[in-house]
Each structure stands twice: as C-alpha cells, then as structure tokens.
Backbone:
C-alpha cells in the first residue's frame, strides 16, 4: 500500500486578505472623514470562472478577476449606515453580519473532492435554460487546482483545508438602475465583436473580461479591520446567459 502524506492548508481570512484586498479599500474621496466603500474595486469586475479560484493559496489574490465591466467610481449622496463610507451610484449596501472565527475543515483526497468543495460555495440561478452550459471545467485552470491534481494523483497526498471568515456589509449592483458600463467593456462589446463568430476576437474578449461579472460582494467595514474580510464571496452573472452564481 503506498504511503499517504497529509498536508494542511489554512485559509484564515485575517491573514489572506491582507494581500488580496484592493489598494483602494479606504480611499478618501468625500468631505472630512468620508471614504469610498471598502473593497468596492471588486464590484463590477469581470471574472473568469474557469481560471478563478475563490480559495487560492498559491497566488496573492483570486486569479479569476478580469477588467471592469461596470464603472463604480461615481458617487452621490448615499452612505452606508455608519455614515463614514460613500456608496457608488447604481449600488446598494446593507448590513450582512457574517463572522465565524472558528476554523471549518475539509479533507481533500483528489480533484473530485476539491471540485465538490469549491462547488459547495456556488449556486446557480438566472434566466433561461442552462442545459447547454458546461461548468464542469470551473476552477480547473487555477494553479491551486493543478497542484491538487498533481499531488493527489502522483504523490497520493491528502490535503486538509481550514478556513474562517468575517464580514460586515454586502454591496450589490442594482437590478434596474445599475452603474454605467465601463467605457472599455462597452467599446469591446460594440466595436470588437463581429456579428459572424470570429474565434480569435471572441476569445480575446473573454480573456479580457472573463465569463461573469461580480454583482454582489460581502465586505468588511470600518468597524471591522479590513484585513478581517471574507475573501471571495460574490454573486456572478454570466454575460451571455444571464446566469447568476452565488459564492456562499
């Protein structure tokens, strides 16, 4: 019987988020004491579901993020309940008290259990039929997925993933009055995609903007240290099929 090595991966948000949060988390933009909504840089960005990984450990941040699809840099009079942070136009914010500092562990024996582990954080909803959408390759392009595949198959190693999370607010793009489309996305959609399918041009578009757009984001606030942030919890909507993916 082959030897089985056991490794443990800790993804405690307090440690991971220090290097994964966007630089503009608390960018001063308003009157004295006012800041931009924390971590708003993720909202409205594209996301590649096949190359992304919400539990990435081998890179500094989730590798799935792509260029912006919505512009979330215009601010009006809206503020979060603590009145310290400004909310972009086309975005709503409300309290989401999610804080569990107890580690939850999961044993990963192969790519199947790892894939199932990631899928447990995802639920699909949206318009139309999804029978023609194949999500079986989701996350498989990420370095963490490849590492799990390599080590569990060849070295017979078993991984234990432990994680904890803590969030304060959720920010969500409004369904009927969303922010304007980003100029770069609009130009790419309107002027670079021919009516007749061109693989090179369409693949470049998907490589630039991904397969989904981040529409919902759990985040920390000023009352919770920005380092204690629940990493990647998103609602993602597939550009073509209007498929919503919720990362739980």
Residues:
């Amino acid at each position: 019987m082959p030897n089985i090595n056991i490794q443990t991966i800790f993804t405690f948000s307090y440690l991971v988020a220090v290097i994964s949060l966007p630089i503009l988390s608390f960018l001063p933009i308003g009157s004295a004491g006012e800041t931009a909504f924390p971590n708003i840089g993720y909202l409205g960005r594209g996301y590649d579901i096949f190359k992304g990984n919400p539990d990435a450990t081998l890179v500094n941040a989730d590798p799935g993020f792509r260029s912006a699809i919505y512009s979330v840099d215009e601010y009006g009079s809206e503020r979060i309940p603590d009145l310290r942070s400004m909310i972009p136009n086309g975005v709503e914010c409300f309290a989401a008290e999610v804080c569990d500092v107890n580690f939850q562990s999961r044993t990963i024996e192969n790519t199947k259990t790892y894939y199932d582990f990631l899928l447990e954080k995802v639920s699909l909803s949206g318009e139309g039929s999804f029978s023609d959408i194949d999500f079986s390759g989701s996350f498989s392009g990420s370095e963490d997925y490849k590492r799990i595949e390599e080590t569990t198959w060849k070295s017979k190693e078993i991984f234990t993933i432990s994680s904890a999370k803590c969030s304060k607010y959720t920010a969500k793009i409004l369904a009927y009055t969303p922010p304007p489309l980003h100029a770069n996305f609009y130009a790419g959609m309107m002027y670079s995609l021919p009516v007749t399918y061109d693989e090179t041009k369409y693949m470049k578009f998907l490589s630039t903007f991904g397969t989904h757009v981040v529409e919902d984001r759990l985040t920390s606030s000023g009352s919770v240290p920005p380092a204690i942030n629940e990493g990647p919890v998103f609602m993602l909507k597939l550009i073509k099929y209007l498929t919503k993916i919720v990362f739980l």
Summary: The radius of gyration is 19 Å. Confidence is low (pLDDT under 50) at residues 1-29, 123-132, 219-248. The helical segments are 13-20, 111-119, 143-154, 183-191, 199-209.
